[in-house]
Structures are given as structure tokens and as C-alpha cells.
User: Which sequence fits this backbone?
């Protein structure tokens, strides 16, 4: 997906989220360009410079990386050292080094090649965000060195959910407030 296609998609999402009409004039004004220049850049007819992309990403409240590399095959999350992990209704602040005993929690961290997740027992999983999908789910590279299994992430309003292949295990919800960027991961076939 070209960056301007992702930008157009994110603009439409913003319009829906804010439940109001966001005009081309308003967007152009916020970015300091003419409506014609905005239209040309978002159609790919005119090259957009780095400053424009930075302003647009900021206006959309995403990182430039998310804007330029959004979609299913991009890295998914990058988080600060401390994030909030949802345990039912209760949000518990934790860091990557320790997870309180009994907390169904997971912390996300991105490396160049993998999406890493720290499990409640302190174990790690690695997901290759560029891997081929199996039944709409990214293949886990490893779970503490054991044989791969399957998991998938899905964005929900204000949080992310991690589901396991075992339907008897409740999804783990992660607060998105502390995420430093988010690149939407969307695959056909996912169900609520």
C-alpha cells in the first residue's frame, strides 16, 4: 500500500471516529498547504516531502512510520517502558522487566524483525510481522524456544486484544494510551 493510500484510509477513519464532516479545506489549513496541493499529494500525483508527511502524521495522531508503512505487513506496536495492562476492569501499570504474579498481562516491544510479547509468567513470544498468515493469524516464531503456535492481534476502540488459539482462554487487552505509535493491522476473516 502506498503511503498516500494509507493516509486516505486514516483520514476516513478519523472522520468516522470524530463523527463529523472533516473538509479538505480544514485538512489543508491544518497542514499549511493549498487544497490543490493536498489533493495532488494524497493522489500520488505530486511528491510529498518529509515535512508534509510529518505534519500529516501528527494531524492524524500516528507516527510517520505508521503512515508510511501502515497495513498488515508493518511492525505493529512500539511502547514506552511502562504501559498499562488491562486485567478485567483494572488497569495495572507495569514495566517490561516485571509482571505482577497472577496478572494476565502482555507487554509489546518491536525489534527489526519481530513483534515481541512478554507473557504473564515472564516468558517471551516472537511474532514475525512479515510472515505469511495461517488462517489469518501471524505465525509465532517461538514461545520460549518451544514449537510454534498461533496467536493474533486485533485492534479494538482504545485497546488491543491478543487472542490465543484456545477459545477457552480470555483475550488479553492492552491499553493503547501508552503506545508510541500504532500501525493498524487488518486482515480479512477476523471476527469479534
Assistant:
Amino acid at each position: 500500500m502506498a503511503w498516500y493510500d494509507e493516509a486516505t484510509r486514516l483520514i476516513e477513519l478519523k472522520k468516522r471516529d470524530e463523527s463529523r464532516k472533516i473538509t479538505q479545506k480544514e485538512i489543508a489549513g491544518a497542514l499549511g498547504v493549498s487544497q490543490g496541493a493536498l489533493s495532488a499529494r494524497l493522489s500520488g500525483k505530486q511528491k510529498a516531502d518529509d515535512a508534509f508527511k510529518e505534519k500529516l502524521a501528527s494531524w492524524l495522531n500516528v507516527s510517520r512510520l505508521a503512515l508510511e508503512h501502515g497495513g498488515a505487513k508493518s511492525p505493529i506496536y512500539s511502547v514506552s517502558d511502562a504501559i498499562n495492562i488491562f486485567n478485567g476492569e483494572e488497569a495495572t501499570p507495569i514495566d517490561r522487566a516485571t509482571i505482577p504474579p497472577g496478572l494476565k498481562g502482555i507487554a509489546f516491544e518491536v525489534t527489526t524483525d519481530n513483534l515481541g510479547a512478554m507473557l504473564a509468567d515472564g516468558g517471551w513470544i516472537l511474532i514475525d510481522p512479515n510472515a505469511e498468515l495461517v488462517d489469518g493469524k501471524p505465525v509465532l516464531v517461538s514461545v520460549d524456544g518451544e514449537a510454534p503456535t498461533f496467536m493474533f492481534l486485533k485492534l479494538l476502540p482504545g485497546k488491543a486484544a491478543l487472542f490465543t488459539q484456545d477459545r477457552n482462554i480470555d483475550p488479553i487487552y492492552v491499553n493503547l494510551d501508552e503506545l508510541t505509535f500504532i500501525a493498524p493491522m487488518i486482515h480479512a476473516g477476523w471476527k469479534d
